[in-house]
Amino acid sequence: MNNCDRSKVLIIGGGPTGLGTALMLAQRGWPEITVIEKRPSADYYEPDKSFSYQIDGRGQKLTDWLELTPKLANLSVASTDFYLTLIQKNGKRKTIKLPIADSNRKTAYWLPRATFVGLLYQEIIEKWQDSIEVLFNSECLEIKEYSDHLTVIIQSNNQENLTFTPTLLVGCDGLNSIVRQTLHQWEKSQSNIFTMQEFPSASSGLKYKVLTIPSQFPLSEEPEDLSQSTMAYAIRSTFKGRLKAISLGLLPLKNNEQPRTANIITYPEHQIWQLETPEEVANFLKKAFPQIPLEKIIDAEEIARFTASKGGKFPIPQYCSGLYQIFGKPQDNQGTAVILLGDAVHCFPPDIGQGVNSALEDVYLLQQILGETQDNLAEALPRYQKLRQPDIKALIRLVQISYPWQYNQNILQKRLWSINFFLRFILNRLLPFVFSPHSFILIQNHELSYSEILNKSNKTTQALAILGGLVLLILLSQILMYTI
Ligand SMILES: Cc1cc2nc3c(=O)[nH]c(=O)nc-3n(C[C@H](O)[C@H](O)[C@H](O)COP(=O)(O)OP(=O)(O)OC[C@H]3O[C@@H](n4cnc5c(N)ncnc54)[C@H](O)[C@@H]3O)c2cc1C
Question: In CATH terms, is domain 3-78+108-199+318-402 a member of 3.50.50.60?
């Protein structure tokens, strides 16, 4: 295959999936790759999108292949060094090391989204400037269909419209993907393969906002009593009740010169979301967290920004079954192949930390299949869809069942979840060939596919049902024996 056949790749979206795909294709020898990103820069700081990623063994399949994992490790806090300090409402503190429940687990790395995207972009600048161009402040406005190819209209940073006719168009533009929506419109609702199918979850719809705070903030009035940036914190409020109690959640951060973020995640009808002025918010937080010197941690400007911010809502778990479409003959350089990756085709709340990892695994799998098909898109894309579809479907089911109750929405449901979790844990220790650990643990094993994990989880559920039935029968027979 000559260079001409592999030219003109247009990637919409310069998040983790888009930049990861650009690096993957460049390393495979593809030239002329353009990434379109509407944000102003790779490490652009948006307070309400400044969550941390945990790049686990699944995500590291791609960073290993790109030889980026050592750099990733350098910028991150390793899961083996993950300590959590719980600050109770009475000010008592308890630090625990999170147990590594799965011995097959590869060390995972915690870092802010902006740092991870910045790492991928830095790699492009250092190694791949000849083949990859990233256009920031640029937005994909429209995709047009011609007899055998597609044309993509981009509004550039100086408001000019640019037109691309790519051989390969990659939709990495997240949940509201214009690439997927356009494929859906063209399909004229025939099979609905590009429609997102939604599945209910106990955590979707929860509202979140983020407070930006200094990385080493004071924990008390004692001058030396500062937080550590590499430590995770959970700070409980003095308030009680479903609509008043809140918690500040802080994930570990390696760079103590960067600001940290404290997440507030709770029901849409919670009192904190009804507060309208910065004064009301400051007052609420001061009363909620008297055990920490809040005025020294959060300034008036940040309170005003927090009050004005709309925040975000956890999405409903969703996926679409169509992952590609081919127009014309892209393999003969007369057509456009379109592929969708990452959040553009599977999106869900962050309960199991698989958003970025599943997206990076998409890119890694595509890389493997391109290798097997000598980069022939007409062969590679159908093969990719056939292999990835069952895993995406299984992933969405895993999101629904694995740990949606972790945000204290319902104490009874959380307790039932804990009983189920420990029952599976103990039975797996006793009879590992019959019972698997809970899917929340299995997900940490990157060597298992999502379909394999769901299969193991379902088999254990069946075994538990049989065991429960047997216990019930024995109890009933005992009762009958004593009553007859
Ligand atoms: C509150 C919250 C917490 C999360 N926490 C975690 C977590 O702890 N762990 C985890 O693994 N995942 C988490 N996720 C999910 C994770 O953020 C996503 O799965 C991941 O970012 C997917 O990457 P992506 O590149 O596919 O999409 P995105 O990150 O959404 O990136 C898409 C990019 O495309 C750009 N774009 C969109 N449309 C256009 C257009 N028309 N033109 C140009 N550019 C465009 C956007 O600006 C964006 O940069 C969380 C998500 C949320 C909402």
Answer: yes
